[in-house]
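Example 599, ligand magnesium ion.
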Amino acid sequence: MSFQVFGLPVSRGVAIGRAVLVASSRVDVAHYFIDEDRVEGEVARLRVARDAVADELTTLQRDLPAEAPAELSALLDVHLMLLHDDTLTGATKQWIHERHYNAEWALSAQLEVLARQFDEMEDEYLRERKADLEQVVERLLRAMARGPASSFAPAPGVRPRDFAGEDPLVLVANDIAPADMLQFKRSVFTGFITDVGGKTSHTAIVARSMDIPAVVGAREASRIIRQDDWIIIDGDAGIVIVDPSPIVLEEYRFRQRQSDLGRERLARLRHTPAVTLDGERVELLANIEMPSDAIAALEAGAVGVGLFRSEFLFMNRDGELPGEDEQFEAYRAAVESMKGLPVTIRTVDIGADKPLERMSANELRHDHALNPALGLRAIRWSLSEPGMFRQQLRAILRASAYGKVRLLIPMVAHLSEVRLTLEALARARQQLNEAGRTYTDIDVGAMIEVPAAALMLPTFLRHFDFVSIGTNDLIQYTLAIDRADEAVAHLYDPWHPAVLGLLARVIAQARAANKHVSVCGEMAGDPDFTQLLLAMGLRSLSMHPSQIASIKQNVLRTEARRWASHLEAILSSDDPQRACEDVSRLLSPGRRAVTATAS
Ligand code: PEP
Ligand code: MG
């Protein structure tokens, strides 16, 4: 029976495909596809784990003290029975064979299926056996973590060849950590749905960077959608339609084709310079997560990288962090791919919704932070790991010998952080000099994403060559709204007059000080804000490559000066969004449509 689930639209477009459920809230395991020739190895890992758990349970049972209640032994019998039941391990093997899931994923997928069957049982005693099943699965997962590790690295790009024929796949999860999202980045999914998350959570950001429709904060989605259900994701409206009727399916297929055509038309603007109707040149830059994204950035017509989120290099590594040489190679690859265009590398922004797994003592502290968004993240984290910080700075400096590199520091709030950062940079330079390594002079910029930094901008500007406004965090910290929490997502409001006021002020002050200013938060790639940002005097915006064409189209249609003359009215309005729409209507009636010109 068809039904709908509602969430937050975070990445536009329509996706149609079969549901692949991952990452249950019950168990937290890695999910990745394996290559054909790894299937038997993965099945063997499962077998070894099952034998180990069987030994464990048998030993437990044998060593039960005489006074132990008889129920305990009976319970262990139930666990042993579940362990050997074909519906658990047999079916798990099938997930591995047929869908090429890694063993942990296969096991958790099967747990999901069985747990639902238990939930639907009439008999209360049988229903309660679900907890036993979960315990057995947990034992198996722990045994796998202890036992022979997967002898190969996750293969994110691997297609599950024999799976579901040629049907497109849609990922459904309770939550997807940004690290997992990265795994799926070059994978097979045509859309994403998660139960939790906000519009600017990093999971949503990575989904947008993949340019595939996504809905987050869909609450119960992963509980009520079943493996293999047909799903439509309406990424514009934030609606998920499960098991759609043929008529609805046809309507959405039509919309999908329309939106593909629209994208193709926009893509023709790729090499058109972004200049407003009144001749203002606007720099459209790309946000990237991995060096390989630089290719998409160039293809989209970006004139540089405005934000390389370097922390993604630190993820999915089982706690082993990339050393200086490995980082250097990654930065160099990005810089060389951009063929002389500038690449702005941000030092790691670890923490908040991008934790590192199993790392240092600091990281453990972070994991248990009551309020991670306010805790040890970004530059705070880097300064608490001075050796690692200098290592990263050296790697970035070294990459500057291969192209135009800019260094960006996230989340500065205190002048002491500025001083320590510049000292670390000076020390990194000195170490490179001593080692005889080459590097060039690079511009150093600060991200303005904490209200304290925005409010004391002139002081910060004395120490930096440029600033880049991180609106995602600036909104989060100005409005005291956790950007990753769907429960307060309705209060996360980029149109809030306080946010717009801060933004306008930072742009104006940076320009007055003759310092380059850019916006690299999600607002930069949101077409609803292009005119307003231009009216504020912004001439540099950094966004996902997939958003560049539609922002460019907006730039081409805007008269920046006429918009600027309405800025005060918009900023002082109780409802800036409405005021902005009014100005838009006022300035557009005679607008000549800018048609995409083929390059
Ligand atoms: C921001 O905060 O706007 C930003 C660009 O950084 P991130 O989204 O990675 O926190
Ligand atoms: Mg930020």
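Summary: The longest strand covers residues 14-22.
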